[in-house]
Every structure is written in C-alpha cells, then in structure tokens.
Amino acid sequence: MHIFYFIIWGCITIARDVQHEINEMIRDREIRVIDADGEMIGIMKPAEARKLAEEAGLDLVKVSPHAKPPVCKILDYGKFRYEEIRKQKEAKKKQKSMTVKEIRMSVRVEEHDIQVKARNAEKFLQQGHRVKLTIRFRGREMIYTNQGRQVLLDFANRLKDYGTVTKSPKLEGRNMSIFLSPKGSKDNK
C-alpha cells in the first residue's frame, strides 16, 4: 500500500493508493502470473515473477487478490493506472445526476403566480430534474392545511403531462410538500 503525504496550507492530508499491490509489496507464497501479452505463464513464487517483470522492463501488479492463488500481471503500472482512471472518469460522465428543484408558495397564492410557477416547474421537469413543491403556513394559516393540500394537488394536476407525483402531500412542521418526478424516470416505477 502506497501512502502519500501532501502538505497543503499547513494541513497534512494522506492519500492512500490501496488499489493494487505491485512488485515487492506482493507477499503471497504462490501467484498465478500472466505476461504482458495476456498469456498465462503459470503458478510461481513472487520473486521469480518479479525477475521476469524486471527483465521485460515492466511491473508485477496483483490484479485479482481474492483468487486462489492470487492473479498477477506483468505490465506497465503507470499506463495501467492511467487507463483505469480514464475509465472511471468516463463512467462518471455517463452517470446522470438528478437534482431537486424547489418551488415555494403560500396558501393565498393567486392564479397568475401559480401559472408562472407551473411554467418553471414544467421547464425543470423537461430538463430531467425532480421538483419539490412547498407551501409554507405562517401564523394562523395552519388552520388551512386542507386548502394547502388542495393547492398542491391542483398544481400537480397541471403538470401531469410532464411529471408524476412520487410523494403525496405531507405536512412537516409548518411546511407541506409534494414531490414530482419527470415522466419516464426510474423514480416513477
């Protein structure tokens, strides 16, 4: 295991590379060795495998530590790590992150305000974001929770072409909220 120390503005951070054991770090009695071309060489002692790797000018890397016996490859470790990091970045790019956009209103919201907020929510849903609609009850407005629930359900009904309700209206403290997810997303199923 490599341990690197980085000193950044007086703080010490430790970055550990626990991905693979290489060269002298391999302490198993016997290992299965694969050469640089991908062909199986056989089962041997790590010292012999290191010697083969040094002759080829490459590194001995344990790629499958849990196998019996562990599998090691003779390869260029720097290139191997570069390829691995590149694959991880590529996989991260392909992941789709879904954010939650919140729209707040009160119980006494007017029709025009609802239309504007509905257009914004429609835009968010079309972009693939989840939408959280929240009504805040202030002071004596707490007695109108039924009206607040109805406002949220009507609002969700306006957006039924673009999204579906994933969480029905729920009162939490002085806020009542409902969640909408875009049509066709995994949350709906």
Automatic annotation (TrEMBL):
Transmembrane segments: none annotated. Residues 99-183 form the Translation initiation factor 3 C-terminal domain. Pfam families: IF3_C (PF00707), IF3_N (PF05198). The keyword Membrane does not apply. GO terms for cellular component: cytosol; membrane. GO terms for molecular function: ribosome binding; translation initiation factor activity. GO terms for biological process: ribosome disassembly. It is found in: Cytoplasm. It comes from the Bacteria. Keywords: Cytoplasm, Initiation factor, Protein biosynthesis. Residues 22-91 form the Translation initiation factor 3 N-terminal domain. Belongs to the IF-3 family. PANTHER family: TRANSLATION INITIATION FACTOR IF-3, TRANSLATION INITIATION FACTOR IF-3, MITOCHONDRIAL. IF-3 binds to the 30S ribosomal subunit and shifts the equilibrium between 70S ribosomes and their 50S and 30S subunits in favor of the free subunits, thus enhancing the availability of 30S subunits on which protein synthesis initiation begins. Monomer. This is Translation initiation factor IF-3. It comes from Candidatus Pseudoramibacter fermentans. The gene is infC.
